[in-house]
Amino acid sequence: AIEYSKSCKLMGCSKSKHVQPAPSTEHSTPAPKLVALRVGSVKDLQVETWIKMQLSNAEWLVPARTEEETEAIERLQETEDFEHIYSQTQGALWKNWPDALEIGLEKIKQFEVPTEQQKLDLEYMYHKLEFTRIRQEFVRECEAFAVTKNFETLSRVSDETMERCRQLAEIQPDEMFSCLPGIVPRRDTMMLESRIRELLQKVEERYGF
């Protein structure tokens, strides 16, 4: 519509026209497809951030192989003396070097273990290695899930790792008779299973997978 300005009439100016401006598109709603993409992207980012935050907790941290561990592995591979291998394997346990621990335990299989206490300690070392590998596998799958958002795979791997926890707990004693540092009691394995289940449930409830 076109109107004459009343203010111009009072001031004696010529007639002017007021053209209504076109509707603003500043706050217009994006197309539904774009909205869906944006919401999906936000959710993906939230999932990735939340997973990384959970994995930053000390209970999930497994240090990457260091140069020092690599050197320890080389020494283990070169050694053929039982006492030296046993001592270095104990060192790998204490320093939380799972790769060196695994190689040491594998090499010890070729020897007759001389004492009952050493046999018991080796059993505890096997338990610690399995405990660490379970954690590593679950953490790797969580990291993959943060990228792929494939909840079906995360759920399957979680079930597998929880079953491994149950199998490990079944062979662990209620009391451990050893002075070894870093060994894992049965209650820690049961707690790991519980924490895996809890994290999986939180992902499902929090993000609706």
Notes on the structure:
There is one protein chain. The chain is mostly helical and 209 residues long. It has helices at 6-11, 32-55, 67-78, 82-94, 98-108, 116-148, 151-171, 186-207. The protein starts with 5 loop residues before the first helix and ends with a helix.
How do you describe this structure in short?
The protein is mostly helical and 209 residues long. The protein has eight helices and no strands. The model is unreliable at 1-17 and 31-39 (pLDDT under 50).
Annotation keywords:
209 residues; mainly alpha; 68% helix; elongated; disordered N terminus
The number of strands is: 0
Give the ordered list of helices and strands: HHHHHHHH
N-to-C terminal Cα separation, in Å?
A: 54 Å
Helix content: 55-70%
- Rg value: 32 Å
User: Oligomeric status of the shown chains?
Assistant: single chain
Q: What percentage of the residues does DSSP assign to strands (E)?
A: under 5%
Low-confidence stretches: 1-17, 31-39
Task: Kindly name the structural category.
Answer: mainly alpha
Layout: helices, strands, pairs:
Blueprint: H1 6-11, H2 32-55, H3 67-78, H4 82-94, H5 98-108, H6 116-148, H7 151-171, H8 186-207
Helix pairs in contact: 2-6, 3-4, 3-5, 4-5, 5-6, 6-7, 7-8
